[in-house]
Write a structure and sequence with these properties.
heterodimer; A: mainly alpha; MetI-like fold; globular; B: mainly alpha; two-stranded antiparallel sheet
């Protein structure tokens, strides 16, 4: 513990044991998922029947469909990618605008707005989903009866999934960008303006380069949260489910090691994202 | 410029947060009188209170969420303490990183891991048989304890991070001074450490409670038919039975519960919503 305080041996042992148990608890499920992606059995369960790559590449002889031939799963990964790119672009845009709004301007109702900006974080995802579902269906029905318009994007489907995820991820992006903008030294901007730079030039050459790490961080977090989102997505999903919903459906039918394979793929992808972020962060 | 920045923010909050919830409220306060005809009514809320199954699931979800939050705090606090006060330099940073890693993969993957570990044909029951602790493989899924394990696991990150940030600011010399003056370990924990960490504890508990209450995946997959989580009732009413009025009322009840418990937590710890959310 703190340097000057003696720690009895039993306490040291207990601490080490606790940390070890904790880490096992933390990693056991992930390691299990990864290991059984390589088990040569039709079902992800012990005993170990030998190493195979069938669950990735498939095996015609035994009729196993591997991850890379499972068009349904691959399609859902692609759906997730598209959704998360949209959500990230929207969240970054509005998050940056909000950060400037809250850090640079005063206006009546600012206090109320700052509370409202945080509320999406305390609304359970399921409720966020059903509320957007109910409003958009009402709008769709209204458009149908008033103008005879059949607006497909207001019915459950990917546009609603994007909006539902964006509704709360925007708050997270706002918080991340605001935190950095708050620490910005505005005299740098003033100096540039005094030296004759235009407002656009100041933004481009001074403010945005300073915000870059926060923008990258917010983009990574948005991508990840969108990819992982389940609750809101479940309520708004239409005919083409993103990966989490697809996996959930398959898990309810009974697990197949293909799910382990796709999980391992996800782990590797997020580890790559995390590593490249850290590399970028340490360069800064 | 102000209008240009205010526009998107207002549009986002109005179109995706405020109006949908108003609509949901309207939906919950009506009842179908005849096909295509509705009238204002409290029937949806009435059903909730008269049908024992509904409010029992509601109470059960609330209690299990509180238990899960308390357990998460108990599990996370020692780790946060080790990260901030016991481990030094690299070891501390590594341990913190290790705590974050599992949350880079989706909850679905983590639930799959627990399924493979715990189900009757899974890894842990097989291990128990091998060790001679049980004669036959036991079913470890579908118990309340299983749901709690899953919920604590999913929530750990959201507790560890605020705890670490509040413990980091605790000056070591305060603890040393108390020790020099003869205070015992439990006394130091009670009188110095916990009061100082209170903002982090509140923030962590609020976020974890909220996420647990609103969770669907973990109780559903690990609890199976026995899970009886309130979000499952909402899903059933909305998506399976297409009874949106009833589902909307359930949604509001869940929102009310979550808001109430957060308000109580803030009141008890004397903190403001904005500060807590910033910290979390």
């Amino acid at each position: 513990m703190i340097g000057s305080i003696p720690r009895p041996a039993w306490l040291r042992t207990a601490t080490a044991l606790y940390v070890a148990t904790f880490l096992i608890f933390l990693f056991l499920p992930l390691v299990t998922v990864a290991v059984f992606a390589f088990n040569d059995a039709a079902y992800p369960a012990p005993p170990w029947r030998g190493f195979t790559l069938d669950w990735f590449f498939g095996n015609e002889a035994s009729g196993r469909v591997g991850l890379f031939h499972d068009s349904e799963l691959l399609g859902s990964i692609w759906t997730s990618v598209i959704v998360s790119v949209w959500v990230t672009a929207l969240s970054l845009g509005i998050g940056t605008a909000n950060a400037f709004l809250m850090e640079r301007y005063t206006f009546p109702g600012k206090q109320a707005l700052s509370v409202l900006i945080l509320t999406p974080l305390v609304i359970p995802g399921v409720i966020l989903g059903i509320s957007i579902l109910s409003l958009s269906s009402r709008l769709a029905d209204l458009m149908d009866t008033l103008f005879g318009l059949d607006l497909e994007f207001l019915r459950p489907g990917l546009p609603l999934v994007v909006l539902g995820q964006f509704a709360y991820i925007a708050t997270i992006a706002t918080l991340i960008v605001s935190a950095r903008l708050k620490r910005f030294d505005r005299t740098l901007e003033e100096a540039a303006l005094n030296l004759g730079a235009s407002h656009a030039a100041v933004l481009r050459t001074i403010t945005f380069p300073y915000l870059r790490p926060a923008l990258i961080g917010a983009a990574a977090i948005s991508l990840l949260m969108s990819f992982e989102n389940f609750n809101t997505t479940l309520m708004l999903v239409g005919a083409d489910p993103p990966l989490t919903v697809m996996m959930y459906g398959r898990m309810r039918e009974g697990a197949s090691p293909v799910l382990n394979a796709v999980s391992l793929f996800l782990m590797v992808a997020s580890a790559a994202l995390a590593l490249s972020l850290m590399r970028g962060g340490s360069k800064k | 410029m102000l209008v240009l920045l205010l526009g998107p923010a207002v549009l986002w909050l109005l179109a995706l947060i405020v109006l949908p919830h108003l609509d949901l409220a309207l939906l919950s306060f009506r009842e179908r009188a005849a096909p295509g005809e509705y009238r204002a009514s409290l029937a949806q809320y009435g059903t909730f209170f008269t049908e024992p199954l509904y409010w029992q699931v509601f109470v059960r979800t609330a209690i299990l969420s509180i238990v899960a939050t308390a357990l998460t705090l108990l599990v996370a606090f020692p780790i946060a303490w080790v990260i901030t006060k016991v481990a030094r330099g690299r070891a501390s940073a590594t341990l913190f990183m290790l705590c974050l890693i599992p949350f880079w993969v989706s909850e679905t993957v983590r639930a799959l891991g627990w399924l493979i570990l715990l189900r009757e044909s899974g890894v842990l029951p097989a291990l128990l048989v091998k060790l001679g602790l049980t004669a036959m493989p036991v079913e470890l899924l579908y118990h309340d304890a299983t749901i709690l394990v899953g919920l604590v696991y999913t929530s750990l990150l959201f507790m560890v991070v605020p705890l670490v940030s509040s413990l980091e600011s605790l000056d070591d010399s305060l603890v040393e001074a108390a020790y020099d003056l003869g205070a015992s370990g439990p006394a130091i924990l009670r009188d110095i450490v916990i009061p100082h960490a209170m903002p982090g504890i509140t923030a962590g508990c609020i976020v974890v409670f909220m996420l647990t209450l609103g969770n669907y995946l973990t109780p559903n997959l690990l609890g199976g038919k026995n899970s009886q989580w309130f979000t499952e009732l909402i899903y059933t009413q909305f998506i399976v039975r297409f009874n949106w009025e009833q589902g909307a009322a359930f949604g509001f009840l869940l929102l009310a519960l979550s808001t109430a418990i957060i308000a109580v937590g803030l009141r008890l710890s004397g903190q403001r919503f904005i500060d807590v959310m910033r910290r979390a």
